[in-house]
């Protein structure tokens, strides 16, 4: 039986999309960044998607980093000031595309395998959950090519991990570190799955995405936004934001139906959010 694909999947040449199970969208990366942001913006508007699993279509790697040949595509101008402004706009566009998973209401889990260098860390720093195959090898590689990581890693990862000294060591040396160090020492990934691409993707779908997809989408969207908001705000600001969100979320029928189902010890199937999901997520 052929995989079920969303109707908009054909718009993207360098990304593969399919539904491995109900309400779970699997996005597989190839060469992609120009389509990446647009794809996630489109996913945000799809009420049938409750969880996204992000992986690589490559057999041996998640991503080896940005193609240095892309540097030749930077804006050109004879005047240095104008060239700098054009380059800045180009870099901001790149950052915006890479940051797309943070903008969508649905949670995104990354299933990482093989080589995950440079740009891979930028991508991974944006998603909500990171699981790695035991063969995953990470590197904040930019200093080895004369750059500082400027597309998300050094903006987001310091807020996500509990070992700033180790992060500094890894970013300054560009040394390769494995899945277990990324989990136990850095705290960047939350689970290591024995195996490679097939094993980590299967685990991410079955053990996480399918579980989340069965829960109230109102509760799931709220949970993602609460965590994201709290990373950049004080406790007092976060509580005020959560009270505002809860003012409408408490009126959802999901709450009443969940309580009734729990009392009867029955399972419940929730409705999709509908076309207004993205607007609710931006409250």
UniProtKB/TrEMBL annotation:
<keyword id="KW-0276">Fatty acid metabolism</keyword>
<protein>
    <submittedName>
        <fullName>ClpP/crotonase</fullName>
    </submittedName>
</protein>
<dbReference type="GO" id="GO:0005739">
    <property type="term" value="C:mitochondrion"/>
</dbReference>
<keyword id="KW-0443">Lipid metabolism</keyword>
<dbReference type="InterPro" id="IPR014748">
    <property type="entry name" value="Enoyl-CoA_hydra_C"/>
</dbReference>
<dbReference type="GO" id="GO:0051750">
    <property type="term" value="F:delta(3,5)-delta(2,4)-dienoyl-CoA isomerase activity"/>
</dbReference>
<dbReference type="GO" id="GO:0006631">
    <property type="term" value="P:fatty acid metabolic process"/>
</dbReference>
<keyword id="KW-0413">Isomerase</keyword>
<dbReference type="InterPro" id="IPR029045">
    <property type="entry name" value="ClpP/crotonase-like_dom_sf"/>
</dbReference>
<dbReference type="Pfam" id="PF00378">
    <property type="entry name" value="ECH_1"/>
</dbReference>
<dbReference type="InterPro" id="IPR045002">
    <property type="entry name" value="Ech1-like"/>
</dbReference>
<comment type="similarity">
    <text>Belongs to the enoyl-CoA hydratase/isomerase family.</text>
</comment>
<dbReference type="InterPro" id="IPR001753">
    <property type="entry name" value="Enoyl-CoA_hydra/iso"/>
</dbReference>
<comment type="pathway">
    <text>Lipid metabolism; fatty acid beta-oxidation.</text>
</comment>
